[in-house]
Design goal:
346 residues; two-stranded antiparallel ribbon; binds zinc ion
């Protein structure tokens, strides 16, 4: 008989205080829209609410340069454009520090045993943020900051960061480009913003095959996403055997998102989540943290979050066997196979 799965949930109202502008797609309403889902989940048995805190300068500087962290912090109380798409309002720096802080609390929670897994609903997103500059609505790369925190605090060696957002996580790729112990896997629409994420980008000299990109043309849906994650990505994760899986859970790969052209439904999101949760159960003692990145359709944000949370609650009943290999269902992901096979058994 398996232990009861306990899920930690992060929602910090400080993240509502980032206001990039009335017409900006990355608006506070995104979190307001999914707040009822979070509150409903917190009313369930077996969920715990994460404490709130801001990531410290030292924690952020494990990924970002001190000069850049100072630059963001100096925006406090002002409105200033840091990048064509990334506008700081008076409380944006604080919101960004609190968004990263929720991920750090989630890492603590899955390592100290208060919960088995976690979902954090935060903004601004982080995966486009580079070590030296803001980019694409993102200030601090919370998922990368969380990975380095886990390494520093819990002596974790092997980590996997999986990015399901419709946009390539260029900042996360940069953060771990030369890291032989952190696996970064991304599915993303291509060609599309930010233009990075080619199959041939495999990591630095000593980390070849630890960056794995899966560029997809528009229109990929549940069938392809589920096959990609349950067969292809799951097999690589099994071989890497991470002690922690972090998921950049952008929900803009869902059907109808205004900033993406994929066709994943809430059911597909749930199946992708279950594939990753099963991988965590096989290799990481079940330790997996989902963090919201993009996602700009409010209904999708609600339904996608609900699907992830339900997958996390029911992690004890997820199918732990690897899905059969079905190359015909991979869509454009079949193109990665010849390259990936230079490093991984597929
Ligand atoms: Zn995105």
């Amino acid at each position: 008989m398996k232990d009861i799965i306990r899920t930690a949930i992060g929602f910090d109202s400080a993240c509502l205080e980032h206001h990039p502008g009335d017409d900006h797609p990355e608006r506070p309403m995104r979190l307001e829209a999914l707040r009822p889902v979070i509150e409903g989940a917190l009313a369930e048995a077996h969920t715990v609410s994460l404490p709130k805190r801001a990531a410290s300068v030292d924690e952020l500087c494990r990924v970002h340069t001190p000069m850049y962290v100072d630059r963001v912090r100096a925006t406090a109380g002002t409105t200033i454009r840091l990048d064509p798409d990334t506008i700081a309002s008076p409380f944006s720096a604080a919101a960004a520090c609190h968004a990263s802080g929720q991920l750090l609390e989630a890492v603590d929670t899955v390592f100290d045993g208060r919960a088995n897994n976690a979902f954090v609903a935060v903004r601004p997103p982080g995966h486009h943020a580079e070590p030296t500059h803001a980019m694409g609505f993102c200030f601090f790369n919370s998922i990368a900051v969380a990975a380095e925190y886990a390494r520093a605090r819990y002596d974790v060696r092997r980590i996997a960061v999986v990015d399901i957002d419709v946009h390539h996580g260029n900042g996360t790729q940069s953060a771990f480009w030369d890291d032989p112990h952190t696996l970064f896997i991304s599915t993303h629409q291509a060609p599309h913003y930010p233009g990075t994420g080619a199959i041939s980008d495999l990591g630095g000299k000593d980390a070849q095959g630890m960056t794995l990109n899966i560029p997809l043309t528009s229109g990929h849906g549940d069938r392809e996403y589920v096959a990609i994650y349950s067969a292809l990505v799951a097999r690589v994760l099994e071989q890497h055997a991470p002690e922690l899986i972090l998921v950049s859970a952008g929900l803009d790969m869902m059907d109808g998102d205004p900033l993406g052209s994929m066709a994943v439904t809430p059911s597909g999101v749930g199946q992708v989540a279950r594939a990753l949760i099963a991988a965590a159960a096989r290799t990481a003692g079940g330790r997996i943290v989902f963090a919201l990145e993009g996602g700009y359709d409010l209904t999708n944000l609600r339904n996608g979050t609900q699907a992830c949370l339900e997958a996390l609650y029911t992690a004890d009943v997820c199918n732990l066997t690897l899905s059969p290999w079905k190359e015909s269902e991979l869509g454009d992901a079949r193109h990665v196979l010849p390259v990936w096979r230079t490093r991984w058994r597929l």
